[in-house]
Specification:
GO terms for molecular function: ATP binding; DNA ligase (ATP) activity. Belongs to the ATP-dependent DNA ligase family. With 354 residues, the protein is an alpha+beta fold. 19% of the residues lie in helices and 32% in strands. The strands form four sheets. Strands 3, 4, 5, 6, 7, 8 and 9 form a seven-stranded mixed sheet that branches. A five-stranded antiparallel sheet has the order 14-13-12-15-18.
């Protein structure tokens, strides 16, 4: 492979904001795997946000990109999986599998798509120094006529339309809105775009903690909600605390510490069978490798309010943010019924294929 922009390349990133800023170009924020696509003739490489190759996990997408992309190009986009009228991030996670036979099977069962939103090189020219609006115009021209599973992300300069996307597209599984300065060159690895995501709050049961990698202080708090059958289900973690607060929390929560998991709602996490059966805290992870995911059981007696953006099945999609303790709430009041569900929206309408 010999391109004017070569792998590995970190994608340009976004910093969070509470409101959509004016005077920018706007796109939907896709909920998938960020990917830089490098094509040089018969060679294709899909680079992840961390620079690790994703190519082997998506053979069906590689075939489509070889068929549809310009002969020599580098583009920025998102790998997604569509099920019905929504994006399905759980199905995307399943694609990262060490067994080639499993990868090939899932390529047929849950094929992936690519949403392209930036062009970084074309032919022998690097476009990194070009302003965003020029790169976008070149992308539209270079990918004119592409078809499923390759798409070009919708874009608008209209702030009101972007606000409408923010309110509507969540129902199709999208994650918010990205705002891009139209005159900005592509700046790999820098947080120079703006992302605006949905934020909601929920009262959760504190049922455990993980120690921090640096020592005996709190790394993350394990959150639970009661389902309709009265079972306390793990829904995610909150983890963003200053180091001093991590130390204070460890001392503050010591009275809730259980000597072992016996009698805890999640005591089955200790069994190898349970770990193999599902994605449970404390279990092995394809993403973290040998990272220690051990946890400390706490009596599920304390309630905290957290902020979250949206759900992935029955769990928080991203790390939740601690807001406050809720001594006025009983743990049994912390159920899924409190969670807000977005109004459904057909993904085909987002992509203009409906």
């Amino acid at each position: 492979m010999d391109l004017p922009v070569m792998p590995p390349l970190q994608p340009m990133l976004a910093k969070p904001a509470a409101k959509i800023p004016p005077g920018m170009r706007y796109e939907a924020k896709w909920d998938g795997f960020r990917a830089i696509v490098f094509r040089d003739g018969d060679e294709i490489e899909l680079g992840s946000r961390t620079g690790k190759p994703l190519t082997r996990y998506f053979p069906e997408l590689v075939a489509a990109l070889l068929e549809q992309l310009p002969e020599r190009c580098v583009l920025d986009g998102e790998i997604v999986i569509v099920r019905g009228a929504r994006l399905d991030f759980d199905a995307l996670l399943e694609r990262i599998h060490p067994a080639d036979s499993r990868v090939r099977h899932l390529a047929g069962v849950t094929p992936a798509s690519l949403i392209a939103f930036d062009l970084l090189a074309l032919g022998d020219e690097s476009l990194l120094a070009r302003p965003q609006h020029e790169r976008r115009d070149l992308l539209d021209e270079a990918l004119r006529g592409v078809r499923d599973p390759v798409f070009v992300a919708p874009v608008t300069d209209d702030l009101a339309e972007a606000q409408g996307w923010f309110e509507q597209f969540e129902g199709a599984g999208l994650d918010g809105v990205i705002a891009k300065p139209p005159e900005m060159p592509y700046r790999p690895g820098e947080r120079v775009m703006v992302k605006v995501k949905h934020e909601r709050t929920a009262d959760c049961v504190l049922a455990g903690l993980r120690p921090h990698k640096s020592g005996p202080v709190v790394g993350s708090l394990l959150l639970g909600l009661y389902d309709d059958a009265g079972r306390l289900q793990h829904v995610g973690v909150c983890a963003s605390f200053p180091m001093r607060r991590r130390q204070e929390l460890m001392a503050e929560l010591e009275p809730l510490r259980m000597p072992d998991v016996t009698g805890h709602p999640w005591q089955e996490w200790a069994s190898a069978e349970a770990q193999a059966a599902g994605r449970l805290p404390g279990g092995p992870s394809r993403w973290t490798g040998k990272k220690d995911l051990s946890w400390v059981a706490l009596r599920p007696e304390r309630v905290l309010e957290v902020a979250y953006d949206h759900m992935q099945g029955d769990r928080f999609r991203h790390t939740a943010q601690f807001r406050r303790w809720r001594p006025d709430r009983e743990p049994r009041q912390c159920t899924y019924a409190q969670l807000e569900e977005p109004v459904g929206y057909d993904l085909a309408d987002v992509l203009g294929t409906g």
